[in-house]
Amino acid sequence: MNKSLKIHFQILNKFSELRGKEFTKFVGVFTNATPDKYVSATHHLLSRQRGVYVPASYDLAYSIKIDSTSENYYNKVSYSENGFIIKYFLPNDIADGQKERDRNALYKNYIDEIPIGIVLKEAAGYRILGLGEITSFFNEYIIVEPFLSNIGSGDILKEEKEVEKYRITEAKYLTKVRLMQSIFRKEVLNHFGKKCLICDIDQEELLVASHIKPWRKSSDKERLDKYNGLPLCNNHDALFDRGLISFNENNELLTSSRLTEDQVVAVNITPGKKFSFDSVTESYLKYHLKNLFIK
User: Are the C-beta atoms of 60 and 114 separated by less than 8 Å?
Assistant: First the structure.
């Protein structure tokens, strides 16, 4: 796991473990926090001035801050037995480069289903609400709901501890997987260009970073290796994932005998089309051809 990914995962875990905690101090807690049992490096949880915190040279948001004392926005936190729902109004001046970056980061959290930390600023201080997931993204605001009731254990009845322990472990694993997939997708699209390798569609929201050697068969290093991925649209990703298309040793596109000629035409495939790949990608493609392709 690379350093940025590791720190992000640690910070999400810290937000979850500190759910419900209140602090009157800001510096040293939310900014310029020293390494602790949650995070292995000096870190920031929030932005001092802005409502959204996106670290420098990073394209995902760590957190949002809801200011219940401000009259500038109409952000609303609603509580229920299942947690909270937040209606959070987005920065509205896209001429401000940082505000545009904040919006873009939150949108990426939404698309990649990466949770964010939530802090409520109140008159007496700051209260951590844990983790939330952006479930709706509109032009003016987002809707944020609890992420799997948060990763932290909270108050657990004795007889429920084993079940809860499993749930927490599963939630942490899911968070790690989502972060790894998000980083992998970015690396693959940047490496190949942001368009489908086969049909050239360049609508980024429709592109998938498809693992050549499947996730379940790969090591953590291989899971993040940009050379183990191809940028594909959803249709071609499904075909590649199921072994209905592949590439031979000459990097020519192959189609499975299970596809009829009409189906090949319908999904916009040109059998025999030749591609150029890095030698490392070629080694992964040999694995796909040998182990996954259906002749």
Answer: yes
Domain that holds residue 57: 3-147
State how far the Cα of 242 lies from the Cα of 148, in Å rounded to an integer. 30
Same domain, 114 and 188: no
Q: How far apart are the first and last CA of the chain?
A: 35
Give the dihedral sign, CA 10/56/61/124: positive
Q: What is the pTM of this model?
A: 0.68
Say if residue 126 is in the same domain as residue 186: no
Domain containing 7 — which CATH number? 2.30.280
Q: List the chain pLDDT tens, one digit each, 295 residues.
A: 567 778 898 899 899 889 889 999 999 999 999 999 999 999 999 998 888 999 988 889 999 998 876 665 567 777 766 667 888 888 665 556 788 889 889 988 888 888 899 999 888 899 998 888 898 988 888 999 887 655 554 444 444 444 445 455 556 667 777 888 888 898 999 999 899 999 999 988 889 999 999 888 888 789 889 999 999 999 999 999 989 999 999 999 999 999 999 999 999 999 999 999 999 999 999 999 999 998 8
Q: What are phi and psi of 129, to 5 degrees?
A: -95, 0
* Pair 142, 224 in one domain: no
Asked whether residue 153 is assigned to any structural domain, the reply reads: no
Give dist(CA 19, CA 131) in Å, integer.
8
* Residue 245 falls inside a structural domain: yes
Number of domains in the chain: 2
Cβ within 8 Å of residue 93, ≥6 positions away:
99
Q: Are residues 7 and 140 in the same domain?
A: yes
